[in-house]
Amino acid sequence: MKATCALGAYLKQSTRTAHQALDQHPLLRPLVQPRLQPSDYRRALRALYPAQYHLEDTVRDGLDRLQLHYPLLLRAPLLADDLVALGLDIPAHEETLTLTPSMRNVTRIGHLVGLLYVLEGSQLGSRVIARNIHRTLGPQMASEYFSVAEEANSWQHFWQFAEQHCPEAQWSAAAQAADNAFQLFALCLDVAQTTDSFTTA
Predict the structure, then answer these.
(1) Which SUPFAM superfamilies is this protein grouped with (predicted)?
(2) What pTM did the predictor assign?
(3) How far apart are CA 120 and CA 111, in angstroms?
């Protein structure tokens, strides 16, 4: 068994609870359902932006800090473009730093690999979401954030990077960082859901 296969199984098992909770979040579930409404899509996009921005920014900082090269596809700017195209404001992202202080500084390769696991793995789900958006809301709907994943090879690049740089001694750190990243998205979605509730009350 290749080391990356073992690492993949380890990360999947270690983050199963956080990953499943995120997939089942009320703001994300409609994105893969056959009766997706434009209002549900807009709410999800706004809620995802702070977490996407912060995770990408943290990964970029980690790559610089550890002096490593990685072909990172930045999707937060595409998400911002989608929001503008839909006539929505771009949410503030600074307060996400207070939600997950443990993600501020990436000092170990395991931390970086764990964050990339979530960042790049999310593109697999994005492909499914993109197809559902096009099917339910039409190809004219602004959806570059999800659609760009259909042509990306980021998942393959990630595993090549992990196999080269992440020894088994760093797997635990990778799992903790990945769990933190899943929780970051869940927290941002929770905050957005609460804000929407107050707004519509």
Answers:
(1) Heme oxygenase-like (SSF48613)
(2) 0.92
(3) 14
